[in-house]
Every structure is written in C-alpha cells, then in structure tokens.
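request received
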Amino acid sequence: MAAPQTIAIVGAGLVGSGWALVFARAGFRVKAYDPAPEVRAGILPWARESLADLAEVGLVSDAEAILARISVHDDLAAAVAGAVYVQESVFETVAAKTEVSLALDAVIGPQTIVGSSSSGIPASQFTEGCRQRARFMIAHPVNPPHLVPVVEIVPAPWTAPEAVAQVVDLMRAVEQAPVRLTREIDGFVLNRLQGVLLNEAWALYEDGIASLADIDATLSQGLGLRWAFMGPFETIDLNAPGGIADYAARLRGLYAGMLRPARGPWPDAVIARATDERRASLPAADLAQRRAWRDAKLSRLVAFKKSQGLSA
Amino acid sequence: MAAPQTIAIVGAGLVGSGWALVFARAGFRVKAYDPAPEVRAGILPWARESLADLAEVGLVSDAEAILARISVHDDLAAAVAGAVYVQESVFETVAAKTEVSLALDAVIGPQTIVGSSSSGIPASQFTEGCRQRARFMIAHPVNPPHLVPVVEIVPAPWTAPEAVAQVVDLMRAVEQAPVRLTREIDGFVLNRLQGVLLNEAWALYEDGIASLADIDATLSQGLGLRWAFMGPFETIDLNAPGGIADYAARLRGLYAGMLRPARGPWPDAVIARATDERRASLPAADLAQRRAWRDAKLSRLVAFKKSQGLSA
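response:
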C-alpha cells in the first residue's frame, strides 16, 4: 500500500483549518503552516472540536485517525516539502497574496501545484512574477470548506490546463465539488450569482416593497429549498413540460421585462435602516450564538444531503 | 367545539389541488371546484396519492381524515357558499383571471376574501371591475404549495389592508410562510430574485465562463445550502463580525463593481446550446422520472427542515 500523499496548508485561520480537515478526512497527510504562533497553536484544538461536531452528526467516524494525519509546522519550507498540492489561505490583499506566492515559488517542488482560497482577487494579480506560475491558480471555497463542498477553480492566463485538471481531480477525490471556470472574471461565478441576488434584494428593500425578513423568507421558505440540491438550470429544466428550451420560450420575455438598470453601491441610509431592522430581530450580542446555530444547522443539512445521495 | 371553517379552491389543477391539501391538512373544510370534469375527477385520487407520499416521509399522520375534509363540486356557487376564503388557481391569462374574478364577485359572501395564485399578473389587471375588489389580492405560491411554504401576498391598489392582514394570518395558521409585499411590482419578489440570478447564470453560460452543470453546482453544492434555511440578508448579517452593516461596508464596492448592463432576453442560439448540454446529461425521455426524483427529495428536505425547527 502506498504512503498517503501530502498536502500543505499555508495560512491556517478558519479557512485554512477547514481545508486541513477536508484533506485529512480524505486520507491525505496534511502539513499546516501559519506565520503567527497563536494561529498555529489553535489549529489542532480547533480541528479536534470540529471533528467532534462532525462525528456528532455522523459525518466522520474516525476523528482520532483524521487528527493524527495533521501536523503543524513553524517553517514554510518544511510544511511544503514533499507536498503534491498547497492550499494557500492567507489574508486577502494583493500584497499578502503576492508575498506568499513568491515565497512558495521558491520552495515548492517541480510538480507541486498551488491553489489560492482567494474569494475575489484573481491569480493573475499576484502570481505573474512566479517562475512556476503555470502551476498556480485559484481554488476558492465557501466557508467552512469542510461543510460546504463547492470550490471554484479559476486559472490565470498562464495556468497550465493539466494543472487545472489535476486540481479538479484532487477536489473530487476529497469529495469537494469543483466548479471549473474557463477564465478569470470579477467575482468568479459564485459571488456574481450571490451579488446579483443581493443587489436586487437591497433594491427591493430600498424601495419599500417588503421587509428584510420577508425578502429572506422568499429564499429560506421558497427558492432555497430547490437550490439546496439543484442549481438554477436544472430547476428550470424540470419546470416546464418540454424542459429548459420550453421554459426559456415561455418565460424569457417575462424575465427580460424585469431587468432594471444597475444601481450603485447600497446606500448608507438603506444600510442603516436594514441594520436597525436586523438588530431588532437579532441583537448584536446574539450574533455569535446565531452563527453557532447556523453552523449546527448547516452540518445537519450536509449530513441529510449525504444520506440522500445529494452530496458532491 | 366550533365547526371547521370552509375554504374554496377554484381551479383545481396541480396548483389548486396542492392548495386543497394545505388547507385540509390544517383542519379546514375544503370545497374544490374546476370547470373541467376530468380535472374534477382527478382531485381526490391525486390527493390520496400525495397524502401517501407525505405520510411516507412523516409529514402527515392522518391521511384519511385530511382526505375526508375535501369535497369536489361541479358548480362554482356551491363550492364558494360559506367559504371564508377562496384560493383561485385558474389558467394564467388576463382573460381567464378576469372572467373567474367577475364570476366569484357575483357569488361570494360579504366577508369572503379571494387570493389568486397568479405568479406574474398583478390583481389590478383583472379585479378592477369587481364590486368587492377590496377583498381580492394575489396569494402566489411556489409549486407544489403543500411542500414549499412561501406565499407572496400582493395587494392591488384597492385591496383593503385588513383583508391582507387576514390572509397573512390565515397563511400562518396553515403553516405557509406569507411574504407581504406593500405594492405590486413585476415578478413580485420571488421571481425577481430568481430572475436576476437566472439572467446572470445565462450570461455566464453565454460567455463560456463555465458549463451549465458547474454553474448549477455553485448553488446546489454552495450558496443553496445556506439559502435553504436562511435568506440573503441573514446570511450576510452572520458573515461579518459586526453584522450586516459591517458586511455592507466591506463588500458593497465589490458587488457594485460586478454589475453589468442588463442584457436582453436569453438568445436562441444560447438556449439551443444549453438544451444540447442538458439533454446530454438528462435525455428528454428521463425528464418525468427526474421530476419524480425532485419531488421525493423535496419532500424529504421539507421533513428534515421540520425536524430541525427550520419550517415556516
């Protein structure tokens, strides 16, 4: 039996630590690095606690073995040595991403591939100066990556197609859901889709059409039920007798008629009004507790989807 | 103990029949009418089969009692007699909606309220001529209403606020999730949110950024997991340390930067390409089977949400 391959985690805050779980859970050896000692000290305790949460909903059964596959390193070169893949999740500024990419470029092996967790900055903005830039790309997760499977794989213009294909295969092997973009675009796919929906939601709220809670309910008690296991195209394909072409023929005029000119950024006064409305239903002091509630519900939903064959 | 109140279902195709289940399940007496004998003949057999499906996932326990509360009528006036509320779900054209509204206006009692299942035509386009138009409005469900809780309540300019409040209360009483719009707007809230997301998804596909399946996965394995139990505003409120205002301050510039000029209706050539791609993964002959799969998964998701306290 071959020894497990090694994955390096560079930048081990919440996103990087979640990635450590993803790879260790799938049987990889994980070497985690962060420049901050206090962040390094938190990795294994957090992983232990998160694995207990996953075990509670039946998502893992061998927490100790998973934990034993994760090691923490105080040296970048040591963490990366022997790694087939590096998941980089440092602070999201061009300066920080450029610095870490150049540092990685100096220490990775000639086959090692680097994926950045960047949610918005494309790889072309921070990997141009890397000698091995053909093996750098974006691998953008949703937080927390050990619960939400989607990962956007976005090549820079100089990223090698074979490297992209290898990362797609790797992500499938660890049961994430890779989404492959053919080229860079602002916001990638996921945040563009979230963005248009948010912009329309804010516009409806600004115009006084409905309350925040009611706009939220159109998703949480409506559209979101299907979108939790089918995307928008499959949804419309099944929503007309003749499939997607039939749906488009019937409804594209309606949807085109709803389009309105793009508005600018959400206005301060509207944000202030929304804040008052949210804080009336959820005081600021309760935000942390509600986040724990969200994570608990999310993990149970993920376990439910797995039980139904609806996972990646 | 008071006798149960009566609800009339007018137009009893799939949407109307689903509504019959919603009200009967909650203890109301339901009188269903449809002008077509073959539609009338199908109501009770369909309800029996659907109740068996609901019982299988634990969503109802007294299918026979629910069924016994539904009666079918071949006369509009008889169906509506004594009803506190009429849910109208006839074919969605201005002509059909106008005809049925005038017919209802002639036979309803002086307290009866009428909600139309119209998904796009506002009530002002078909109730202006009704003497009792102050008690007519839109109550737009998502199909099937006995599984998806959301209902958009949209008043015409002449709808009485007290009538709106009564329908909101009624919908809550039958465990639907009423979303209250202050006034009419094209597409209401739900289809506007769906529409902007669809338009962006089609644009990304048209531009060759990603495949249909990959765009779908950004929702089904990503955004949709949260939206299945939290709307977009609660999502962003929990996604920044300081809540919604903090999130908006950090990211409104990013989202404003992604806005692009609205495009026209989805082009024929793009629809043709999408059709080929969908039919390669799901042949037209398998559409019906996949719809049954969707409904089975949807009912299990609804049961899961109920078990987790995430229902309306």
